[in-house]
């Protein structure tokens, strides 16, 4: 066993992990944060996407011990104070979710994109989610949702200065 | 099976550890190839040495005449670099074509070079740039041409106690240009991830002063196509020459790939890829009347 300390969704963990454990297994099986999905286990589908130190990575391609000292956000960490993140809300509003297996990864890829570029065009959105496969919804609705999320986030920033923001 | 993990805090410590572990030690950086191997195949080494966070390996230095890139540099570091696209387009194109944003955020150029995959995207442009690899162990630093680094499929000329520190190459000048082309398939679907990089230096009267051509996935490892280069150096770049050289690369592919099942497809495809990379490189190397070649 090797000891690691890391921050997941703003909570600090100090734990012992098996040497051959992957980060995705740590997140799902040890922390029981099962929102992160495993599709292919080979870096193709993006269902296991997390944000690590500000960048999206496939958690199926990282060893758990390598995450020592890192800051991680999983899908469980994007909602704030019980309110959905604007990206999550937009996915619901547009109907960009069918089975939902790809959704956590899609939302995190969208978040990383919008964190860097508040108003991406459709091409940039497509590029931003190019590492995430969806087998049922189709990509148009997902791109629509991310566009809508971008406008929600901008509105939210305006609202914050006047009232309490989106519900 | 992995039974031990080491996280050195600096390069010196990493080299020490690598030295001590001998054949049991395996460096891990971005993990984008290695973790799959560890998970899905019985893994013969027992000790992982994590170098993914070593700052000393993560840099892009652009000097007057030379560019040096640390082995731990992520593809996204290169893609997001403000100057790389302008200075060495082909390398930039290759790095932005790697996998997906997630893979580019984790994968390193050093890992791409050392894994010796025939389809490593960043390698053909580095070969075409005539890059040198800088390799370190606890006592010494050595430099060798990248083109001699590949020995066989998955096999590179590095000892168990050595680490790829950086890669360097001469900065392309005016009248020089490098391009990269690959088959635009998603990795998951690609049977053959064929790619090609062309570096060209054009002189007066469109004379080819120098040309370096490299292919990926056309054989056991990425390689320079020196026989073809020899035919082109000193010649005038014109339509018949393009015609001749694409025919020639077909012949080379045919001979090298023999009866492999992918041969028929690759022999056809490489002509298109190479032709495109060549035309584009020449066009950019010089403000060139391109249209007569662009059928
Ligand atoms: S499960 Fe990680 S990319 Fe598919
Ligand atoms: S909603 Fe089912 S995979 Fe995307």
How are the strands of the biggest sheet of chain A laid out side by side?
2-1-5-3-4
Radius of gyration of chain B: 19 Å
Proportion of residues in helical segments of chain A: 25-40%
Structural class of chain B: alpha+beta
What's the pLDDT, averaged over the residues of chain A?
A: 94
Secondary-structure element pattern of chain B, one letter each: EHEHEEEHHHHHHEEEEEEEEEHHH
- Total count of strands of chain A: 5
List the uncertain runs of chain B. Answer: 288-295
Biggest sheet overview of chain B? 5 strands, antiparallel
Walk me through what this model shows:
The complex is a heterodimer of chains A (167) and B (295). Chain A has a five-stranded mixed beta sheet, with helices on one face. Chain A starts with a strand and ends in a 5-residue tail after the last helix. Chain A has two domains: 2-77, Beta-grasp domain (Ubiquitin-like (UB roll)); 86-161, [2Fe-2S]-binding domain (DNA polymerase, domain 1). Chain A has 167 residues and is α+β, with helices and mostly antiparallel strands. Chain A is globular and about 45 Å long. Chain A has helices at 23-30, 86-94, 103-116, 122-128, 139-162, and strands at residues 2-8, 11-17, 49-52, 55-58, 71-73. Chain A contains five helices and five strands; from the N terminus they run E-E-H-E-E-E-H-H-H-H. In chain A, helix 2 (86-94) packs across helix 5. In chain B, strand 4 and strand 5 (66-70) form a beta hairpin. Chain B folds into three domains: 4-48; 56-170, Uridine Diphospho-n-acetylenolpyruvylglucosamine Reductase, domain 3 (2-Layer Sandwich); 176-293, Enolase-like, domain 1 (2-Layer Sandwich). Chain B has helices spanning 11-21, 34-40, 75-80, 84-87, 89-96, 101-106, 109-114, 123-128, 226-232, 239-257, 263-285, and strands at residues 4-6, 25-28, 47-50, 60-62, 66-70, 132-136, 141-145, 150-152, 155-156, 163-170, 176-182, 195-202, 208-216, 223-224. The model of chain B is unreliable at 288-295 (pLDDT under 50). The radius of gyration of chain B is 19 Å and the shape is globular. The longest helix of chain B is centred in the last third of the chain and has 23 residues, at 263-285. At the A-B interface, strand 4 of A face helix 2 and helix 6 of B. Bound molecules: FE2/S2 (inorganic) cluster (2 copies). The site of one FE2/S2 (inorganic) cluster (FES) has 12 residues of chain A, from loops.
